[in-house]
Amino acid sequence: MHPASSMSYSNVIFFLLLAKFSCCMRLLIKQTKLFEPTHPLHLKLCDIFVVNGVIEDIQAQIEVADAEKIEANGTWTSIGYMDIGTQIGEPGYEHREDFQTVTAAAAAGGFTAIASFPNTHPVIQSKAKVNFLKNYAKENLVNFLPIGATTKDTEGKEMTEMYDMHQAGAIAFSDGEKPIQDTGMLLRVLQYAKAFNGIVVNHPHDQFVGQAQMHEGSVSTKLGMKGIPSLSEELMLQRDIELLAYTNSRLHVHNISTATAVEMIQAAKARGLNITASVSALHLLFNHNALSDFNPNFKVLPPLREETDRIALLQGVADGTIDCITSNHVPYEVESKFLEFSYAKFGAIALETAFITSWNALQSVLSPAQIIERWAFASRKAFDLNIPSIEVGAKANLTVFDPEKTWTVKGTSLYSKSKNSPFIGQQIIGKTILTINNHKAYNIWQSQES
């Protein structure tokens, strides 16, 4: 249960973080299946002993005194997951999500790192703003990895000082939720980023569609809603690929959603282009039929598309065409979502349910080890980031996931400040029970009841 309702939500999360996401002293994780390709016990049951945030021992069986024991039978332990393109809210939109709540939501979803989009107020578009995020993330349970804006105020008109942000620690550059519409601007961005081997992230969505509401198809026709055709994604993606080939730069295509887009990424990789791609977890499990009852929490960008698209996305993840999976976490206050459908904003929160969603979608085509690889390893590889390891002497960066735990998603059981989740009220299978990073731990048995 949450503390008294008279306290502000931020204060509630603050106290939860102090009391529950506490320093990791002596913790013994018992009989979990290890997912660490470099370790001799990979895919085997083992015990992991963590002392003051550092892995002290990994053995088939460990017995120690004066340690908190986590009976983890049936669970999977890997390095923590990483999300790309998280909307964190703060600064400027703290009423939707702030640093404390996004940290809590990410940890509860198994994430130890989030690469955040720059669409805050003010925009993350300078060395100072990058340092602002990095300074907050120091010793935080979840690492914040800034993605700097490519254009000032993400308006697509004037290029930012990307090199300065790169020097300060920005891992990539993007206008985030605002795709770069101007071809000449994207060309210059790619050329400039190439000088320091920078990565440009763009979500392909041509805005010629105007005020459309969902995928253009049988469901939009039936509901009388203006649709977003697959062409809006594929036109921009083709442009981006050709600009990438022309500049010989680096591009990450954020959250594709159509079968043709999968084929285009596959062809671009076959040409030897330096391109990676991601897909939203929600798009792996649902198609546009989810909007048949006007549920605004399924109103997302890119839109949920045809079943044939969903199957192609699954296959794209399975064969490696799509490198990694994202939460597509976009928090919104009630006033922005629970409106007449055509006025509701695009976006859903997903940090706490993203891995579970992908697991339920992909388990027929990928092994657990392969699904974990897409979240924990491939996402870091795509951005040339250091990949933590699970070995004696290493700082513990761990996620323990229970694939059999059944729980009901409630507004009171979600840490995110916003509640625009399509899973509210639903019973789902799979839950992160423990996350450790930077000498801190999230532990389901010490957190709120769900």
Explain what the structure shows.
α3 (127-137) packs parallel to α4, α7 (231-247) packs parallel to α8 and α8 runs parallel beside α10 (307-319). The chain has helices at residues 9-20, 99-108, 127-137, 162-168, 183-194, 218-223, 231-247, 259-270, 281-285, 307-319, 334-337, 354-362, 368-382; strands at 26-34, 45-51, 54-59, 68-71, 76-78, 81-86, 111-116, 143-148, 172-173, 200-202, 214-215, 227-228, 251-253, 275-280, 324-326, 398-408, 427-437, 440-443. Mean pLDDT is 93; it is low at 1-20. Strands 1, 2, 3, 4, 5, 16, 17 and 18 form an eight-stranded mixed sheet that branches. It has 13 helices and 18 strands. Helices cover 30% and strands 21% of the residues. The N and C termini lie close together (9 Å). The radius of gyration is 21 Å and the shape is globular. By secondary structure, it is α/β, with parallel strands linked by helices.
